[in-house]
Specification:
heterodimer, A: about 210 residues, mainly alpha, 7 helices, about 75% helix, about 0% strand, B: about 475 residues, two-stranded antiparallel sheet, 19 helices, about 80% helix, globular
Chain lengths: ~210, ~475
């Protein structure tokens, strides 16, 4: 069951690299939140009520509902709909994504260790590379925001690969920090659209030497 | 500590609710009083090396940089009141609230005894700084703020990945530095190396070193000058403390530590090169001072990489840089009042407009370039001696070449401010020599440290570098 969810997660990453509509990006981020909830519930064997509530809040409420809602709101307000002027074609994006997947598999096999679940590690690494690729090859800042979220989801998966269980307070603080960052990014993205009338990263060049 | 955090946060948020500048000033003064009292209590040994709430330890490393932050904060508050005197009340109180929250978050970074908590509070500093950077609400400020939040958040996510990898060395999931120190030597060398790369690359956006140094420059450029004085010193020091704590952990790792030091030397050289290159290129005095911060943090990274006495020198270098750079940023705030501009190729004749400020700049330049009696002369000399002792002549050659470029760039730019004909409109009614004098105090303090290092400071740095 876990393996099926992990494969589904990889498919969302591949689909994210080729889809052009930002609404699809928001939906895929929401789907990733749900998949992460499933993986967390299946993977963590002994859960008390507080931990269960926290995982549901972090994955289902935060990753699958609130963050996609923020993305959809930004899409509605800014009327940014498509990756129209992407820095590379869909084919190139798919190619880069597959290279990233192969690279992740290679690094994972090179780093194999009994202390880390290598399947989770590999997929988390692939998520990290996918996020970075989106940030580098896409021109629109909205796609950069999605790339950042993909990285954050990858980090969540990575924490499961390590099997680390931090104190609740630290987990909560991490989640709040990330949530405020995303709120701020969404807010400033709308301001960019309103004030500079651009959603292209290439247009953000007034602050330079 | 809990009283400190609650009281500081309450005072900061109270400033946001008042409707007059006077009350904002009252709350900011009270806030500074709390910071100063807390720092004095700790420095007097009130709770040195004690642990509070299980997550904060008042160690010497945190204390030294906390005291420096409080000193800087006092000057920043005084200058910011004058700098923002013509702004609407809403904007004024928002600035001070964010400044107070930022200094509280930075204090928490200094004292956090857990790698995950250091990460959390560093991310919190991003959130507070973002509001300060966007203070002017201009297009440039918006762009700088977007870049700052985005790059810092992505960078710090990478650092978190590194921290998670560090988790593999502990068995109970505890990420406090003491637990990590006890078990790090047993860790998988490959994981430790990757973790080190991720953490240093992630925290580089705060420490203003390669690879994510750019956001710090943009932040200093967009923020009001007194805030830049704070960001370029206290916040950069927070990044330095975070990296130094990881460095001290790795000191137990033998072969991995040697590798980590080589990485730091490489990062330091690239950072120094970038600083030297852009010091020649930029046409804005605030960006110019920011690149100087990058250059100095590059030297500190090299010091850490070389190790031994150079590590002592690196800590001393960063501590003294705090006083010098905050003084220069506060001076540049006075310059902006007069010219309403920071453009290097247009503003000039400062020596005849504000002699005190001009002398402050000239002396500041001498001290920044590490000429005696600069404390940076002491630290750089120690780093060079250690490099010579280790036989790395190529490093000496590269550093000297880059420092020559820095000296030429800094001197020529600072001389232009004082002596080239001015081409911009002047606002002479805005000349406030008291502010120039007050900024000079920080510079004098730095020069005193250059001539005489108090035994207390020497022992404090000795303790810091032996925290292994």
């Amino acid at each position: 069951m876990i393996l099926s969810l992990v494969i589904l997660y990889v498919i969302t990453l591949i689909y994210l690299s080729i889809t052009e509509r930002f609404r699809n990006h928001a939906s895929l981020i929401a789907l990733q939140g749900v998949i992460l909830l499933g993986i967390a519930l299946l993977r963590l064997h002994s859960l008390d009520a507080v931990e269960l509530a926290f995982i549901i809040v972090e994955t289902l409420l935060f990753k699958a509902v609130i963050v996609p809602a923020i993305l959809l709101r930004v899409i509605r307000k800014t009327k940014i709909n498509r990756v129209r002027s992407s820095g590379s074609s869909q084919f190139n994006s798919l190619l880069l994504s597959i290279v990233a997947l192969a690279l992740s598999c290679w690094i994972t096999s090179a780093m194999a260790d009994e202390r880390i679940d290598m399947i989770f590690f590999g997929v988390a690494l692939y998520a990290l590379l996918s996020g970075l690729i989106m940030i580098v090859v896409r021109q629109r800042v909205f796609a950069h925001l999605v790339g950042f979220l993909v990285i954050e989801n990858g980090v969540f998966l990575f924490s499961m690969a390590i099997g680390v269980e931090m104190p609740m307070m630290i987990n909560l603080a991490i989640m709040l920090d990330i949530m405020i960052s995303i709120l701020l990014l969404g807010m400033f993205l709308r301001k960019l659209d309103n004030n500079i009338h651009t959603d292209e990263a290439d247009a953000l060049t007034s602050v330079k030497d | 500590m809990i009283y400190y955090i609650v009281l500081s946060s309450v005072l900061a948020l109270a400033a946001l609710t008042v409707s007059s500048r006077r009350w904002v000033d009252v709350f900011s003064t009270l806030f500074f009083g709390v910071q100063a009292a807390f720092a004095v209590w700790l420095a007097a040994g009130g709770a040195l090396d004690s642990t509070q709430l299980g997550i904060f330890t008042f160690d010497t490393l945190g204390m030294v940089f906390h005291v420096l932050m409080v000193v800087t904060l006092g000057f920043v508050i005084v200058h910011a009141r004058q700098y923002l005197k013509d702004e609407p009340v809403g904007s004024y109180r928002r600035f001070f609230t964010l400044l107070m929250l930022l200094s509280t978050a930075i204090t928490c970074v200094y004292y956090a005894n857990n790698a995950a908590l250091t990460w959390i509070f560093l991310e919190a500093t991003t959130i507070c700084s973002a509001g300060i950077i966007y203070h002017r609400h201009s297009e440039a400020a918006l762009e700088a703020t977007w870049k700052y939040i985005f790059v810092c958040s992505t960078g710090i996510a990478m650092a978190y990945l590194g921290i998670l990898l560090l988790c593999t060395v502990v068995h109970d999931g505890s990420l406090d530095y003491a637990s990590l120190a006890a078990t790090i030597a047993d860790g998988n060398p490959l994981y430790l190396k990757v973790a080190f790369l991720l953490i240093v690359a992630g925290y580089s956006c705060k420490m203003e070193i390669f690879p994510l140094y750019t956001v710090g420059v943009d932040a200093n450029f967009a923020a009001p000058a007194p805030a830049s004085a704070f960001i370029s010193t206290a916040l950069v020091n927070a990044g330095f403390v975070a990296v130094l704590r990881i460095y001290l952990l790795y000191a137990r790792c033998g072969e991995v530590f040697v590798w980590a030091r080589h990485v730091l030397i490489l990062i330091g050289i690239v950072t120094l090169a970038v600083g030297a290159m852009f010091l020649r290129r930029t046409n804005n005095y605030k960006r110019f001072l920011s690149y100087s911060t990058i250059e100095n943090m590059g030297i500190a990274a090299i010091g850490m990489g070389v190790g031994g006495a150079a590590l002592w020198a690196a800590v001393f270098h960063v501590a003294c840089h705090t006083l010098i750079k905050s003084s220069l940023f506060l001076q540049i705030g006075v310059v902006r009042h007069i010219y309403n501009s920071y453009r290097i190729n247009r503003i000039g004749n400062y020596i005849n407009i504000n002699r005190v400020g001009a002398i402050g700049f000239m002396v500041g330049t001498v001290v920044l370039l590490a000429f005696p009696p600069s404390p940076l002369f002491v630290s750089e000399l120690m780093i060079f001696r250690e490099i010579v002792a280790s036989g790395q002549w190529w490093l000496i050659a590269v550093m000297l070449m880059l420092l020559c470029i820095v000296i030429y760039a800094v001197w020529s730019r600072m001389l232009r401010l004082n002596y080239q004909p001015n081409q911009d409109e002047l606002h002479l009614s805005q000349v406030n020599r008291r502010l120039s004098y007050s900024a000079l105090v920080l510079l004098v303090a730095a020069m005193v440290l250059g001539l005489w290092q108090p035994d207390l400071l020497n022992r404090a740095i000795d303790t810091i570098i032996t925290l292994r």
